[in-house]
Design goal:
Elements lengths: L2 H25 L9 E7 L3 E4 L16 E5 L2 E5 L5 E5 L2 E5 L1 E6 L5 E2 L2 E2 L5 E2 L5 E3 L14 E2 L4 E4 L2 E5 L8 E5 L3 E8 L6 E3 L5 E5 L3 E6 L2 E5 L2 E2 L1 E2 L5 E2 L5 E4 L2 E2 L8 E2 L4 E4 L2 E5 L2 E4 L5 E5 L2 E4 L7 E2 L4 E4 L1 E3 L5 H36 L4
Antiparallel strand pairs: 1-16, 2-15, 3-4, 4-7, 5-6, 5-11, 7-8, 9-10, 12-13, 13-14, 17-34, 18-21, 18-33, 19-20, 19-24, 19-29, 20-31, 22-23, 24-25, 26-27, 27-28, 29-32, 30-31
Length: 358
Amino acid sequence: MLRGLYTAVSAMQTTEKKIDVTANNIANVNTTSYKRDVVISETFPEVLLQKINGRLPSEAFSMAPITIEQDGEAYQLSSDRGLFTVSSPLGISYNREIGFALDESGYLKTYSRNGTGAVDTSQGNFVLDANGRPIRIEGDTFEVNATGQIVSNGQAIANLINRGTINTIGTINGGLRISRIDTDFSQGTPEETGNNLDLALQGNGFFKVLTPRGDMYTRNGNFTVNSNGEVITAEGYFLSGQYGSILAEGRDFTISEKGEIILGNEVIDAIEIVDITNLSVLRKYGEGYYEIAEGEEIETQAFSGKVLQGFLESSNVNTIKEMVEMINSYRNYESNQKIVKAYDDILQRAVNDIGALK
């Protein structure tokens, strides 16, 4: 009977975190280049529900084909004829639906999409075959056939469908939990300021800044010049150029769309702009700065965007959407709160009335 109580309480805890994150997004709606946070939640592992006493009547195994949808390089599958199995940090989970893609090591893993919309398996879970083993693909291509088999190089190498045991009647989970908090790196709107030292990036990429903690990255282009003529951030960190800090020698300079600093019709330096492809390794440090997670390395590609001089990038927070999210979260919290109250009333009745000695 208490399983429903645990489920409701876990949902309240998750919703409470969502409310905090949404409130922080709204509070930073006017913060230059702020990137909104998104709460990624997941259920606790779906475990098999089995009949203990007695046996279920024998039924013919359904050969109905599974539903397959290909989403770019990823797959979305659903089935009524069996279960898909995933190995999560909390244990083995059994599900009727699954989404997966091929990771860099050749294993099939669940995935999410990063701020650019690309498939990200870095924090996904291993997909298991019917025998409970991770599935590894030799090569870069594979297919899923209608019976749930993984086909590579013309051969079936694994079966995704797990039938459970003879007494399996379904699955059940223990509620909801926070998986992680991701950052939405989508572009904010450039707003013109007319200030020669205000810069905005149009497209993917970050300004590299030199700090006492090492290299950091930011999209906040609100720069100034210190007493030595070096371009710095509002916190005093140096904007990185080709040769270290950038010596602007006053404000009478222009910056090309490629980030070249031009003084007197001569290119004197270039801003170091880093286009990071594996955005999941970045962690917010504060004040619009990002640092690399411990033990991780960034992967970069050539910057293909533009540098806009005299502009600042606004936050990517949509106030209306965040308010709708806040209202929905409050309603979910209140609904689960009523469930907890109902369970509390039932338990009180059981103790005071049913359990009373007369």
